[in-house]
Amino acid sequence: MSRRIVLVDIGQGMTLRGVLPSVALFAAYSAHVVARGGQGPYVYTITAGAAALEAAGIYLDSPTGELISSRVALGGTFPLTIRATSITGAYVERSFAIVVIAEPLSLSGTYPDAVVGVDYLADLQISGGDGNYSNPRAISGALPAGFALSIVGSLLRLSGKATAAMSRTTVVVAVDSAGGTATSTQAIKVTDLSPPQFSDWRYLQTLLSDNTNYSAPAFDDSAWPIGPAPFGNIRPGASDDGALAHAFDSRFSPTIATTVNLDQRLWIRRKLTLSSVPPLGIKMTGFFDNGYVMYLNGAVVSQNTTGLQSGVTANISSQALLAGDNVIAVRCDDDSATSSTDASYFDFLLDVTKESDITTSLLNFGGANGSTVFTDTAAARTWTASGNAQIDTSLGYNAGKFDGSGDYLSTPVSPGFDFGTGDFTIEFWFLVNSLSTQQTLFDNRNGDSAGGLVMYALSYAGSPRVWIYGSSANRGSSPAALTTGAMFHTAYCVKQGVATVYLNGVGGAPVTLPGGFTFPCTGAPRIGSQWQGTNFLNGFVRAFRVTKGYCRYNGAFTPPAAPFPNP
């Protein structure tokens, strides 16, 4: 009895080449694969994925290696494996995929106006096509100087810092790998608001006992004299207010131009005319002695009554400003009738507020999966990882991962986390795996009653919320919509002494803080742990941002989906 042994060459030296392009739904299709090496002729077969392709109406011609369809019937991605077999029985296989585009490529959205010198970031949504977007550009009308287009996932991003005012219509385009294009016509306007335009100061010296409401916008100050700023008593030597103001900000004159009588109150008024309102408002830089109250359109926007000469910076929110004329009034008090070294002095400068002026901490958790390096792009500070805290990319975006057992991030005590009595916003996205115990999100205290605040995710008395505590008292909570295992956006906003906790853009009940209540930074700020190393977070945090001097949200809003822009 004899045995027959058959040796089959599995294709050593053979290759299978070809590009299978994407195709639009309901269009005709034709593409080839070609075998090289071995001995022809070749027979081409589909060894995996044939049934799905046939359902879509795409077939392989066995003698030629052509994939063909007169009309593609289904959308989606169709993986397949093709085998080319030579006349000797040798073969080679290769995996491919055909993408059938069910939705045409399109752009939606509008780029908002920009301001010269102010950081800008805005997105158009890309949809349809094959999902692989590239080659963003302007095909008609130039972009504003200092701006550039980029692709971020499914977003067509316009970002940069405009260098000059302009107004033009620009056509932008995005392309997918199948060669599809989408265009959008955008009317882009850049306004130059710096420096703001003022009228001259009008001023009135009056008694401390005069309580007339000179801050009212409608008050007629036409009879007041007009004079230059600054105002104050001239004091000799190094203690002169003008010299101190100049040392605080070199734009202030070292010479005080107008003398104010002792034991009197000085009112000063002027107009601020804006062609449009800057998106982040206006930053006030000032110097005062002994105290001041600053009004914008009749409402208090900044004050200090410590009685000590000092420099000051404060943000005037865009919500308080008007396009057109705004009335600024300042009450300056001289609290001594006898001291020749006392003064009533206030002067200030205005600049368009930039992200770098108000963003004091920003963590977008950039870095490789598993990294323990956390870069704060808003300040030269270090966030130190404790326990197993690390960067995680498993959710489809970068986040900080905390396992609930000794994990947290910390950074040294900093003025950027000392909110005082002013406006501020703390916001981030988070996911918790438990609500049965206090899951600490953020803490900047060194004791339960030492001042500062702590943010918890907790189901208390059956009410799953984000809770805020400061000085051992409840300072606000979100709506009771919190669940485990889902990503939520929260924001704690304080505006003129009223605190609101938002969850996915919906605010909880506003809390009016006690008069003079302050949120200092008394301990090293932490993410993921309470100050004494308890109540650890079991979950994730992403896109963490602290804004000082500005309340970003004042009512219901749509939380930002993209990482926060670097200041």
Could you describe the 3D structure shown?
This protein is mostly beta strands and 567 residues long. It folds into four domains: 15-101, Immunoglobulin-like; 106-191, Immunoglobulin-like, CATH 2.60.40.10; 197-352, Jelly Rolls, CATH 2.60.120; 357-548, Jelly Rolls. 3% of the residues lie in helices and 46% in strands. The chain contains three helices and 44 strands. Strands 28, 31, 32, 34, 39, 40, 41, 42 and 44 form a nine-stranded antiparallel β-sheet that branches. It has an eight-stranded antiparallel β-sheet with strand order 29-30-33-43-35-36-37-38, with no helix packed on it. A hairpin with a 2-residue loop joins β36 and β37. The chain is elongated. The termini are far apart.
Could you give the topology of this structure?
Elements: E1 15-17, E2 23-24, E3 29-32, E4 34-36, E5 43-48, H1 50-56, E6 59-61, E7 66-69, E8 76-85, E9 91-101, E10 106-108, E11 114-115, E12 119-127, E13 133-140, E14 147-152, E15 155-161, E16 166-176, E17 181-191, E18 197-198, E19 201-207, E20 226-227, H2 241-248, E21 264-274, E22 282-289, E23 291-296, E24 299-304, E25 310-316, E26 324-333, E27 345-352, H3 355-358, E28 359-363, E29 374-375, E30 382-386, E31 390-392, E32 399-403, E33 408-410, E34 424-432, E35 439-443, E36 454-460, E37 463-470, E38 473-477, E39 488-495, E40 498-503, E41 506-507, E42 511-512, E43 526-527, E44 538-548
Parallel strand pairs: 2-9, 11-17
Antiparallel strand pairs: 1-4, 3-7, 5-8, 6-7, 8-9, 10-12, 12-15, 13-16, 14-15, 16-17, 18-21, 19-20, 19-21, 21-26, 22-25, 22-27, 23-24, 23-26, 28-44, 29-30, 30-33, 31-32, 32-44, 33-43, 34-39, 34-44, 35-36, 35-43, 36-37, 37-38, 39-40, 40-41, 40-42
